[in-house]
Design a protein that fits this description.
The protein is of the alpha+beta class and 243 residues long. The protein has 3 domains: 3-44, no CATH class; 50-112, Roll (SH3 type barrels), CATH 2.30.30; 121-229, no CATH class. It has 5 helices and 12 strands. The chain has a 5-stranded antiparallel β-sheet, with no helix packed on it. It has a 3-stranded antiparallel β-sheet with strand order 8-11-10. Helix 1 packs across helix 2 (155-165) and helix 2 packs across helix 3. The protein is flat.
Length: 243
């Protein structure tokens, strides 16, 4: 995680302390003062963002393994958390892996910016997995398939496929929000589905009217988004609780 615990000063605890002493007239006296304690905050460690190092960029980074500066060319990116990301390069990995990859917190300098844009391997793998899952389930559908229907074995699979490939939702997984779970989405749009079999007497099968499902998703998705800023605040609270 590219977060660090940083000292921010002293803060009052709300407790008043007493200091007993003898004043200039040799009389006992009491000095009251607020108790204070060190204050810390979990802050973002690096000023860099993934967009600063698109594919083709030459970057310098430091390794906690050997404490040396390394230089390499960026060939891809990978998400590693809500705001955490990894640069994958063509450099030599100090840990013996085939390519050098490192968390954004280790990025020290962008020598030159490339022109290859962002290449998120997470999205590439996710799209391929979701598409293959849907096509496999579609081929197993035993009922009659109409041109105006999506068919499959699980409503969640149809929803994931639609959010991945349909132009109206293609940026859903890339937006500045955390996508809702497909099971939660189904509960909001289940009226668009027809359950052919629930899986108790035969393999589960379902279908959905294309226009009806697309309209339902357009209606409910904006109200189901979870802000990444909110998720990051919750993540920071969790990290702070570990110190």
């Amino acid at each position: 995680m590219p977060y660090v615990k940083q000292f921010t000063g002293m803060v009052d605890t709300g407790v008043t302390l007493e200091h007993h002493y003898v004043d200039d007239q040799d009389q006992p006296a009491v000095y009251h003062y607020p108790e204070q304690t060190d204050a810390f905050d979990i802050v973002w460690e690096t000023p860099w963002q993934p967009e600063h190092a698109p594919v083709g960029s030459v970057v310098r980074w430091s390794s906690t393994f050997d404490d040396h500066m390394h230089e390499a060319k960026v060939i891809a990116h990978e998400l590693n958390g809500i705001r955490s990301w990894v640069l994958i390069t063509d450099g030599v990995c100090p840990f013996g892996r085939s390519r050098a990859s490192f968390n954004g917190s280790h990025l020290k300098e962008v020598v030159s910016r490339g022109t290859g844009g962002m290449n998120w391997l997470n999205n590439t793998r996710t799209i391929a997995d979701i598409t293959n899952e849907y096509l496999e389930q579609q081929s197993c559908f035993k009922g009659r398939k109409h041109k105006n229907q999506y068919v499959g074995r699980r409503p969640e699979s149809i929803i994931r496929y639609l959010l991945t490939v349909h132009p109206a939702f293609r940026s859903y997984y890339d937006g500045d929000h955390c996508p809702a779970l497909s099971g939660d989405i189904y509960l909001r749009v289940k009226d668009a589905f027809t359950i052919v079999s629930d899986g108790y007497t035969s393999a589960p099968q379902c279908s959905a009217n294309k226009k009806k499902l697309i309209a339902a998703l357009k209606r409910v998705l904006p109200r189901m988004r979870i802000s990444k800023d909110k998720m990051e605040r919750e993540e920071r609270k969790f990290i702070a609780s570990m110190y």
